[in-house]
Design goal:
mainly beta; six-stranded mixed sheet; three-stranded antiparallel sheet; PGBD; PiggyBac transposable element-derived protein 4-like
């Protein structure tokens, strides 16, 4: 693979939809995808196996991997961190080893809570329109003020690298 293409430091893993308008018993619907109906493409296995298989040959190089909540877990983040690969992305609240105080904490809009594991993995939750749960083995949790053209300035939480 390296002879044809050398990937950059930042990588992303997500499931993909192949457009299918015909009749098919395993056709799926995902509202936020460009092709809402179709066949979801990824290996039928545990998410950790998919990530490890897709990252084969790219580990131990200090890369940053960005994933959605289908793949992310504290356990997978630990495993990839031990292989010098950083993980950032959203996290499902029902995953094993999530800190219960973060998951169960009721927040008001604009509030956030964050906990770090012993190996430095950040699990953060903040409330915008709804609760957002994030995990990162690379970035610390910080609140930063951002301004958009359409709306007034509001506090938003996101992971940012310290300079």
């Amino acid at each position: 693979m390296n002879e044809i293409y050398e990937p950059s430091k930042n990588l992303s893993i997500d499931e993909s939809m192949v457009l299918w308008r015909g009749r098919l018993i395993f056709r799926q619907y995902i509202k936020n995808k460009r092709h809402k109906y179709g066949v979801k493409m990824h290996m039928l296995t545990e998410p950790e196996f998919v990530v490890e298989k897709l990252m084969d040959g790219l580990l131990y190089k200090g890369r940053s991997l960005f994933m959605d909540n289908f793949y992310n877990s504290v356990q997978l983040s630990r495993k990839l961190l031990s292989k010098k690969t950083y993980v950032t992305g959203t996290l499902r609240s029902n995953r094993k080893n999530n800190p219960k105080d973060v998951i169960e904490k009721k927040l008001k809009k604009g509030e956030s809570i964050c906990r770090y594991t012993n190996d430095g993995i950040c699990i953060a939750k903040w409330k915008d329109k709804r609760d957002v749960l994030m995990i990162s083995s690379e970035f610390p949790h910080e609140m930063n003020e951002i301004t958009t053209k359409k709306k007034r300035s509001k506090d938003k939480a996101y992971f940012s690298k310290k300079i």
